[in-house]
Amino acid sequence: MSPNDQSRPAEPGVAEANEAVRRRFPFEDTRDLDDARRGFMGTTSDGAIHSADGRVVWDLEAYGFLAGECPDTANPSLWRQSRMAADHGLFEVVEGIYQVRGFDLSNMTLVEGERGVFVIDPLISAETAAAALALYRAHRGDRPVTGVLYTHSHVDHFGGVRGVVTEDEVAAGVPVLAPEGFLDHAVSENVYAGTAMARRAAYMYGAALPKGGRGQIGTGLGQTTSTGAVGLIPPTLDVTRTGQEETVDGIRMVFQLTPGTEAPAELNIHFPAHAALCMAENATHNLHNLLTLRGAEVRDPRVWARYLTEAVTLFGADSDLAFASHHWPVWGRERVLAFLSEQRDLYAYLHDQTLRLLNQGLTPLEIAERVEMPPALERAWHTHGYYGSVSHNTKAVYQRYMGWFDGNPAHLWEHPPVEAAERYVTYMGGAEEVLRRARDSYAEGDFRWVVQVVHHVLFADPGNAEARTLQADALEQLGYGCENGPWRNFYLTGALELRQGPVGTPTATASPDFLGALTVEQLCDALAVRVDGPRSWHADLTVRWNLPDGEPLTLRLFNGVLTHLTGTGPAVAPPDVEITGGEADLRAVLLGALPPVGLAAREGVTVSGDLGKFTTLLGHLSEPDPGFAIVTP
Known about the structure:
Layout: H1 12-24, H2 31-37, E1 40-42, E2 48-50, E3 56-59, H3 76-85, E4 89-94, E5 97-101, E6 108-112, E7 117-120, H4 126-140, E8 145-149, H5 167-171, E9 176-179, H6 182-192, H7 194-204, E10 237-239, E11 245-248, E12 251-257, E13 267-271, E14 276-278, H8 301-315, E15 321-323, E16 330-331, H9 333-358, H10 364-370, H11 375-378, H12 390-402, H13 417-427, H14 431-443, H15 447-460, H16 465-480, H17 485-500, H18 512-516, H19 520-528, E17 540-546, E18 553-558, E19 561-566, E20 577-580, H20 583-590, E21 606-609, H21 612-618
Parallel strand pairs: 7-8, 8-9, 9-10, 14-15, 17-20
Antiparallel strand pairs: 1-4, 2-3, 4-5, 5-6, 6-7, 11-12, 12-13, 13-14, 15-16, 17-18, 18-19, 20-21
């Protein structure tokens, strides 16, 4: 930690709770540790991975401290998990299948074919993916990439694709496989709501936190997110059904489509020649998220459990090992079946028990306090809530079925946070009295209540230095006790921002390269969510773009809504300006790289009408804020 670090030691109650975890669970069991190191072939001698401009996008040595003893400022169960997830290098899964682990949040898997190597899930950043491929080649030879596969639609499984293959190579015949619906869901997460998700991801993954026993020690699923160049090359071959088989470079693959599980578009893969089953992110060494804290669509645990049962039925008798896009493999047919069955039971139990209590009238907060995992599941390390948690997963199940409202009319029309906070603080006798009582609660070790009550003082008076300090201290103590990596990172990042100011958003997924991979319709949808509605109430602007090789596209801003239609007909309003030009020019305007007024000088572009109307239309768009406040109003 830096000399100016303002962190505090663990309070006695937190230290005692962490020690109780050590006594409760079988830390002497080393099977996971052995599995995490099995097949190690070597790692890079470079301590860090850099971008082209010299910036460090991934530090391979940042987690070396995890080799030491767990301090009392960290939950020993999370420390154990993070130590294994931090192991970096090339590992042999089975002859012909290899993984590079510890080079990003996720794993890159490489399957050797007849002519080259097939890459599964090329990490987040081009830089980390290129370094992973270089490590593989250093040990296995300079084999060309003969195919790429994205197991699902989260950025840590496709963002680094340009580090392993180029668009020219794809155009020349290197296939890119993905589950049906991949591109739509990748866009919805990283573009439509991308700014808000990236901002919250800064908290969830703790990328701005110092690494160490009082700071970021991992996320449970992996260590953190790399911060290099995020890209996307669209798939060239969709997997559309379970049982579909594809052979790439002599590698035969049998697919199981699993939509609505860990991602809206996801698949598992069986490799018959290796008796190996890739579970993507549907079965990893932790309880996963049903609603990730960065924000996403609520996942369906009932469907998730059903697909895990189906995986056992389809492939269990022919699988001697299972590996995934995170963590380490499981070897041995009996262990694979037990692992998948216990993972299945995790999601089924959370679903069924939440519904049971929901139908007894319990609210999300009450259910989260009531549900405990069965002892037989809790004894298995891979069921622990290192990434998802029982608490926030039960709330997600409730939300999936019942929405945000708990049924109590007192919660139907509450004041927004600042207005409510001002009233709370007044009712409680003023900020000074609230803080006096909160300091007593802090001394008693009731950090959860301190955070809840001091929040009101902060939102009523964000400049109150005493409230900021006390809130930061209480958030930090809650973080020290967390077995869940994202919870720890949220608490500690909140404390960091209260003490030092905004830390920003380290990773931007909606990069120019990513946006360039979208369809024109997706670009139009991305613009529509940026329209400043109230400022556009009285606007009525229509732009038509005639594409030489396609139907005309009409954009209309009316009633505060930006719609787009293709073709002609009674539903299409007459345009204020009509442009004929290629798709590249249209994209340049929609992406902001070319102002509409510049179209008049473009070769091959003709304009009829007032180009200023196009400029006016785009002027109704607002800019998202990648650094919006979270722990203050």
